[in-house]
């Protein structure tokens, strides 16, 4: 009996690990989102009009993070202490750069419905949270992606972003960062540049003015989908402040965000939205959400194992 219980505990641990590292998806209104455990890629799709056809997915993935000097130069490896580490088949320079997320596995939590969207005036949505420890010599990246259940508005320090049902708001937090050089020292890290790769049906083009202080920087991604980047950030849970002038910006097919050196955390909030009216959308019933079934199977199996182990 003791051997059986020991095996059951091993099975329980394996099921918990599988649940935490499995891909997750969700639908709301005319939108569908999928999160990949491998790389943390976010895929966003919209339904075409009143059909069940989906647009090509907009794929959003973190490309790399680089520490920069006050002069805007990449921090030299020699400025950092430590030893280069193998990381998912790629080389991690000591603290100053994380080169690729492609082979990094994110821990993904189960979808949660009815969650309040941060900075969105009591708007609720379905949320999937996921995170990755990038290594003891780097830091931690945490992301939550939320599909809005209703219309409203995101308001961040005077910046307004309309939200409709099915629009995706995602919140990013960087924490526990290991910096190169002492703060304020010559050639030490003063900024952290985060590169995001966005793959869409057409090349992203700027919508409106990047200098409008009352709105985020918006880009047309085709298929009536817009991605908006706030010019605001929150350092160490303080007040919202402006990002460095000229950021966010495009660099080829990459979007670059520049964050100031921080002690504990940086918080940042982009948005992906559909341009057409969603008033006739009917929530999850419009397209099947397979994640609900997959999750229920895992939960049922976990419950059975837990009940047996408790005997």
From TrEMBL:
Lineage, top-rank taxon, reads Eukaryota
The signal peptide stretch is 1-22
Q: Which UniProt keywords apply?
A: Signal
Name the record gives this protein = Uncharacterized protein
């Amino acid at each position: 009996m003791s051997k059986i219980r020991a095996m059951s505990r091993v099975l329980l641990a394996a099921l918990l690990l599988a649940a935490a590292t499995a891909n997750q998806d969700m639908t709301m209104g005319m939108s569908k989102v999928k999160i990949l455990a491998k790389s943390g890629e976010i895929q966003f799709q919209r339904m075409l009009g009143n059909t069940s056809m989906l647009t090509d997915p907009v794929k959003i993935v973190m490309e790399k993070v680089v520490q920069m000097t006050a002069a805007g130069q990449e921090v030299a490896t020699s400025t950092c202490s430590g030893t280069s580490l193998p990381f998912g088949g790629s080389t991690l320079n000591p603290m100053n750069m994380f080169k690729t997320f492609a082979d990094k596995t994110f821990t993904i939590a189960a979808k949660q419905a009815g969650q309040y969207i941060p900075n969105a005036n009591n708007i609720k949505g379905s949320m999937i949270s996921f995170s990755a420890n990038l290594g003891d010599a780097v830091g931690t990246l945490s992301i939550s992606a939320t599909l809005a259940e209703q219309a409203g508005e995101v308001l961040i320090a005077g910046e307004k972003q309309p939200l409709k049902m099915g629009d995706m708001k995602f919140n990013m937090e960087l924490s526990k960062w290991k910096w190169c050089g002492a703060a304020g020292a010559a050639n030490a890290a003063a900024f952290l540049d985060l590169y995001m790769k966005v793959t869409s049906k057409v090349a992203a083009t700027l919508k409106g003015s990047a200098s409008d202080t009352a709105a985020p920087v918006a880009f047309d991604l085709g298929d009536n989908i817009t991605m908006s980047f706030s010019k605001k950030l929150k350092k160490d849970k303080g007040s919202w402040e402006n990002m460095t002038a000229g950021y966010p910006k495009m660099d080829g097919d990459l979007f670059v965000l520049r964050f100031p050196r921080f002690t504990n955390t940086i918080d940042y909030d982009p948005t992906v939205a559909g341009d057409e009216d969603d008033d006739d959308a009917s929530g999850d019933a419009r397209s099947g959400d397979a994640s609900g079934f997959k999750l229920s199977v895992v939960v049922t199996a976990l419950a059975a194992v837990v009940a047996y182990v408790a005997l």
